[in-house]
Structure formats: C-alpha cells, structure tokens
Specification:
By secondary structure, the chain is of the alpha/beta class. 30% of the residues lie in helices and 28% in strands. It is built from 13 helices and 18 strands. A 7-stranded mixed β-sheet has the order 3-2-1-6-7-5-4. Strands 11-10-9-8-17-18 form a 6-stranded mixed β-sheet, with helices on one face. Strands 12-13-14-16-15 form a 5-stranded mixed β-sheet, covered by helices on one side. It is elongated, with a radius of gyration of 33 Å.
Length: 440
C-alpha cells in the first residue's frame, strides 16, 4: 500500500504541473481513494508544506497557503539573503544554505559558506533553522536558513598562517647541519638576553629624536648575536640560553595593538611582522647552535603575549629534529633555569619586584634549596634599573636595544642607554661576567 510520504511527493508533483490532465479528485480515485476525497488530499499536502517549509527544487517554487488558496512563489526571491554591518564592526549574514547536520556545526564551513575568511573573521554566534526541499529526482532534501554573527579577529595568527609560512620558509631556508664548535660538558652557560627588541615599532627622528623600524630592529638583532659570538671566543659552553620573549614583537593584533588593546605605531602589517620575526629567530638560533646547544623558552609580556607564544610553538616545530636546540613551550610566564649552584628566574617585570623573591622560593622550591646563587632577570623598563638584593635573591632589570618612540618621548622616558646584555655563568661560582653590547 502506498504510504503518506509517497502521496505527499505525488501531491507536490501535481502542484508543480507534472499531472496536467488530472485533478485532486481524479488522482484520489487513481490511487484507490486513499483520502476521503480530493480536497482532503490537497489539504494534507498544503498543511504539510506549511508545517515543514517545503521548497520545490524542480520548479524553484515555494508552496504556501495564502487565504486558503494555493500560491506559488519563487523561493529565491522569497528568501532574501541579507548582510547587516554593526557599528562595532561586527556583521550579521543571513542565507539559505545546503549543508549536512555536521556541516551546520562546523565553524570553518559556516564562515566559508557565508563568504568570510576565517583568517580575518571569527564566529560569534550561529543559528540554523531547517527547511525542506523537494526534488523529483532526490525527494525531500534539507536546506538551512542560516544566520551567523561574525566580528574581525583580534588575534593575529591562525593555524593556516603558521602552516603556510612554515612550508614557504622551509623551502627557502635550511638550518645548517653542524656540530657545535665551542661545546664542553664542563663548560660555562651563556645567557644571551635580547630583551624588549620591539620588532615592528615605528619611530621617527623628527618626532622622538630617533629612527626605528623593523629593518633597524633586524640589523640590531644580528649585530648583537654576532658581537656576543665574537667576544666569547675564548669560552667553552655547556649550553646557551637564548632569551628573546620579552616584547620581541611590538604588537599583538590585526589592529596593531598590544595584548590589552593599546594601539602602537608600526611600519609593518601583522602578517609580515610575524614572518619577519620568526625568520630572525630561526636564523639567530642557528648562529648560536654553531657554538653550543641552545635552549629557549616563552615569557609572557605585555606587548606580545599571544604572538610570542605562537613563535615559540613555531620554533618547537622547526627544531623538533635538532639534537642541539631545545624549545620549552610551557605557557607559564615565569621560567626558572638551574645551572650548577645557580638558579636564574625570568619574567617580563610588570609585577612588584618585591614579590619576586617569594615567588621563586615557592615556584622553584626544590631548586631553590639546592642552589646558592639566585637571580631574577626582568625586562619591561627598557633600561638597566637599580639592582637590589633581598631574601637571598638578586633582582636585575636588563637593558633594551630598542629606540625611543613618540609615546615614550612625550612621556619623558628618554635617555636610556641602548644595549643588550649577556651573562656568563659558572657551575661553581655563579655569575662571573656580564657583556654589554651598546647600540650606536
């Protein structure tokens, strides 16, 4: 016996004009009076169409009930796709989409289907209401009335960006196959501390008394590394600490703002900034690894908390097969390195320095007890601030090689000696040498 779904399909075909010689009454007779009369069949189809929002894909018609009369409307003109732009930059897109149930829950699919690039936009909310589409060939299919709200992304790097640059850089640059020339298991530890480089900062001599841009930052970066390598030729190293993640990048978003949203002057777009910075770091680590095994890690800073973390993850992937480079991707913003009788802590330095001695003793309790020399190396102030010693800890704020920008000049933060500082640690005697690399 014919079922209701088949009768519904026949009724849709009749409404679409596929049975021009029939009436509802003759169809009912043809199918053995399955309904009480032809009008009952017509009413069944009409109510089901209204209930299920069925669209006839064969004729591009929407069948609706209007004042108890059959009415056929072109469904494309019936469903108006709309885009609304909000004052805060958000957008609302409303479209009729063909998708599966799984696709209706896929953020990447929804963004693409509505015409948005996931590198630039992020999904705020989505609402998908089911419509049913009738096709003579395929029967009843599913469409969705899809409405999404999107806003411009505030983070600056997507997984796709990382993969794309990794592949491009891998094809154009190869890390050298070397054996460190100054390695000794009984050697010292070199700490090369490149604090507050601020790659991407823009300063103009006419406004702040100095020029600075990403090209100048890149030159200083390599100059500092080359200077330290040249001036430590007489040392053998067990390892090298490469400390870069203290506002290495000048900003942290598409809009060139810090992590918390403070706008910065910059001469480079966010995509280019990331690529330039990553390539600098890979090249710098390669230079240092020619001397001795290199270890580097992440420090969360106020200008680039997100971008520097993306960078450390990138470096971890790049050097994953290197026996001479260790990358610590731990997201905690304070790190502790134990070397012989020394324990050195690293943080950006925004918090009250008086709290640092207590933090080290708590966060690295066992290492604190094993060691005699304790130092915390901080950045943030772009100058070598007064060193103080309290409760067995020396707190040291290191210098910065960056230039003064307009905001610092207007605020009166001028005159700091531009330099980078490196430290040489002995397993038995702790910190024995400090190297200053002044920037002219």
């Amino acid at each position: 016996m014919i079922d209701k779904d088949q009768l519904f399909k026949i009724g849709l075909d009749f409404r679409a004009g596929l049975y021009p010689d029939d009436t509802w009454k003759s169809l009912n007779i043809k199918y053995n009076n399955v309904f009480s009369d032809g009008e009952a069949w017509r009413d069944y189809v009409r109510k089901r169409i209204k209930k299920e929002n069925v669209i006839d894909e064969n004729t591009n018609k929407v069948h609706k009930d209007l004042n108890d009369k059959d009415c056929e409307v072109d469904y494309k003109s019936q469903y108006k796709s709309t885009i609304e732009i909000k004052p805060d930059g958000a957008q609302v897109s409303d479209k009729l989409l063909k998708m599966s149930d799984e696709e209706s829950k896929d953020i990447e699919f929804l963004l693409k289907a509505h015409g948005y690039d996931s590198k630039v936009w992020e999904l705020v909310s989505a609402r998908n209401n089911i419509w049913n589409v009738y096709s003579k060939l395929h029967g009843v299919q599913v469409l969705y009335s899809s409405k999404i709200v999107v806003k411009p992304r505030t983070d600056n790097i997507s997984i796709e960006d990382l993969k794309e640059h990794f592949e491009e850089f891998n094809n154009s640059y190869m890390s050298p196959k070397i054996t460190p020339s100054r390695y000794s298991k009984d050697g010292k530890m070199l700490e090369l501390n490149l604090a507050d480089l601020h790659v991407g900062k823009l300063a103009w001599v006419g406004e702040s008394g100095e020029n600075y841009d990403y090209k100048i930052a890149k030159k200083r970066f390599h100059y500092i590394i080359d200077d330290v390598i040249a001036r430590t030729q007489h040392y053998k190293f067990e390892k090298i600490l490469f400390v870069f993640s203290n506002d290495f990048f000048h900003f942290d978003s598409i809009e060139a703002t810090t992590t918390k949203g403070t706008r910065q002057d910059s001469d480079v777009r966010w995509q280019k900034l990331y690529k330039i910075g990553i390539e600098m770091l890979v090249e710098g680590i390669d230079k240092l690894s020619r001397l001795a095994p290199v270890e580097t890690f992440y420090i969360g800073a106020n200008h680039d908390k997100m971008t520097s973390y993306y960078a450390i993850c990138y470096l971890n992937a790049w050097f994953k097969d290197s026996e001479f480079v260790t990358v610590n991707t731990d997201p905690q913003s304070r790190k502790y390195i134990e070397f012989g009788k020394s324990l050195i802590g690293f943080c950006h330095g925004e918090i009250n320095p008086k709290r640092l001695s207590g933090l080290m003793a708590i966060e690295a309790k066992q290492a604190w007890g094993r060691t005699d020399y304790h130092e915390m190396h901080c950045a943030h102030f772009h100058s070598e601030k007064a060193i103080f010693e309290e409760n067995g800890l020396i707190v040291r704020f290191v210098s910065s090689p960056t230039s003064t920008d307009a905001w610092h000049y207007e605020s009166g933060f001028v005159g700091a000696v531009k330099k980078a500082q490196s430290f040489i640690w002995d397993r038995e005697y702790g910190l024995t040498d400090i190297l200053n690399t002044p920037i002219k």
